[in-house]
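Appendix B, example 12.
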Amino acid sequence: MTQPKREIGQVYAHNYGYSICAYEFFKIVRLSKSSMWLQELGKKWVSGDGQQGEVVCTYHPIPDRPLKMYRLDKYIGSLYNGEELYEDHLD
C-alpha cells in the first residue's frame, strides 16, 4: 500500500484488533531523511456505551506517552479527516 507524502502535523488513524475494532490516533511531530516520530493523541466517544459506538480524535497529546519512532515507509494507518470511526470492544 502506497503511503501519502509524510508531513509534520499530519494525523493518522490506526485500527487494530482481531475480534474487536479499536483505534489509535497519531500525529507526526518530527521527520528525518528516513524516520518519523509520532505523538499519540487522545480519543473520545461521541456515541454508544464505551463498548460499541463512534469515536473521534481529540487532537490532544496523551500525557506521559513517549514519542514512537518508525521508518518513513512503515504503514501507520490512514490519514485522519475528522470523521467518526466505529469502535467495538465486544469479543
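Strands lie at 11-16, 22-31, 35-45, 52-61, 68-71, 78-79, 85-88. The first strand starts at residue 11 and ends at 16.
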